[in-house]
């Protein structure tokens, strides 16, 4: 691939389609909806592939993403509290021609969203977020979730749609996730039952992450899952045992720019290309995987330089050689690139624009 300058992000179209189809088949077998998180790819083209494969809707991180990733008529979930007038107003505007939901865990989020929706003459469906172990967002108890659900039910401009949670703390091997997911199931069941006793219904029960995606059937309360990374995969999912190297659709092609230091090479991909994220399951593994030299270790990143220890290899690349890196965490990596190269078999390279790059509001 000498046609483009480096460093650059390259996407294998076939692998993307295989990843999308594999999850769609699993979800269909178990009667679970897929609402993929678009923060991974930030691309309307990839979102369309996911919708064409049967996704029930799309998940977005910020309203600005929704403005470019979703289209009129789409069913979208803002999996982020719409705190602040700007966020609430943008969400309400989207709700005028989309089926819009948002996750909340405070009365302020309910009030600000409802006020913006009334001004826009729109309706926003709200999911009460429950903390199931991530300790990030979400109320702690079913009783707190009920109190917020009751407030939503009594507030004009918003509609009670259900429950959201995020099992981002679960990084166990697939065959060892049972106990952790049983705890998730128990908390959801308790909350749903409490709501029923108060005459409230959780039509949507939304959870899921890439590490837990294929064990989602162990939480029978779920109506949908929201994995994002699965579409491209990365070294987090590989080293966690959730996919194989061949399932990694997104890779960075870079150039060796120096081998002046004995036993090391330097490539033109640093923290502005790869991000500085370490691998969650293997924090001592370096800053990604060098495909052509699996014994190498990317030991440090500065802004424009990646320093690679080659002592574990029986050969060393020459200055000017191109090499391929699978990043540790693909989601922020994509956000660093205006475009990627979309590779179809036996077809000219195409540019895939990162439509929602830098949209953080």
Description:
By secondary structure, the protein is α/β, with parallel strands linked by helices. It folds into 2 domains: 13-231, Alanine racemase (TIM Barrel, Alpha-Beta Barrel); 237-353, Lyase, Ornithine Decarboxylase, Chain A, domain 1 (Beta Barrel). 29% of the residues lie in helices and 21% in strands. It has 10 helices and 17 strands. Strands 1, 10, 11, 12, 13, 14, 15, 16 and 17 form a 9-stranded mixed sheet that branches. A hairpin with a 6-residue loop joins strand 16 (339-343) and strand 17 (350-353). The protein is elongated, with a radius of gyration of 22 Å. The model has no long low-confidence stretch (mean pLDDT 97).
List keywords for this structure.
elongated, alpha/beta, 10 helices, TIM Barrel, 361 residues, Lyase, Ornithine Decarboxylase, Chain A, domain 1, nine-stranded mixed β-sheet
């Amino acid at each position: 691939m000498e046609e483009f300058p480096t460093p650059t992000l390259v996407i294998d179209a076939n692998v993307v389609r295989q990843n999308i189809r594999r999850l769609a088949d699993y979800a269909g077998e178990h009667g679970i909806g897929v609402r993929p998180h678009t923060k991974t790819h930030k691309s309307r083209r990839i979102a369309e592939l996911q919708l064409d494969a049967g996704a029930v809707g799309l998940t977005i991180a910020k309203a600005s993403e929704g403005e470019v990733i979703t289209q009129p008529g789409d069913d979208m979930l803002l999996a982020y509290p719409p705190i602040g007038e700007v966020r609430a107003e943008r969400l309400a505007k989207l709700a005028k021609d989309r089926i819009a939901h948002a996750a909340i865990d405070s009365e302020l989020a309910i009030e600000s969203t409802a006020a913006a929706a009334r001004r826009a003459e729109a309706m926003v469906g709200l999911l009460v977020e429950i903390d199931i172990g991530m300790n990030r967002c979400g109320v702690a108890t079913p009783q707190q979730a009920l109190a917020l659900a009751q407030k939503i039910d009594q507030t004009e401009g918003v509609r009670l749609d259900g429950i959201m949670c995020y099992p981002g703390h679960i990084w166990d091997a697939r065959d060892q996730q049972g106990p952790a997911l049983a705890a998730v199931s128990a908390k959801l069941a308790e909350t749903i039952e409490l709501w029923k006793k108060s005459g409230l219904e959780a039509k949507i029960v939304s959870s899921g992450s890439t590490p837990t995606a294929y064990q989602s059937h162990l939480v029978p309360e779920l109506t949908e899952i929201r994995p994002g990374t699965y579409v491209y995969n990365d070294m987090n999912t590989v080293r966690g045992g959730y996919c194989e190297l061949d399932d990694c659709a997104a890779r960075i092609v870079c150039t060796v720019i120096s081998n002046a230091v004995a036993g090391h090479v330097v490539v033109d991909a640093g923290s502005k290309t790869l991000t500085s994220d370490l691998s969650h399951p293997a924090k001592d593994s370096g800053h990604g995987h060098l495909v052509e030299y699996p014994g190498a270790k990317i030991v440090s990143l500065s802004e424009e330089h990646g320093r690679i220890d080659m002592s574990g290899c029986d050969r060393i690349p020459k200055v000017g050689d191109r090499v391929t890196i699978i990043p540790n965490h693909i989601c922020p990596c994509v956000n660093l690139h205006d475009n990627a190269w979309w590779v179809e078999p036996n077809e000219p390279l195409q540019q895939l624009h990162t439509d929602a790059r830098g949209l953080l509001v």
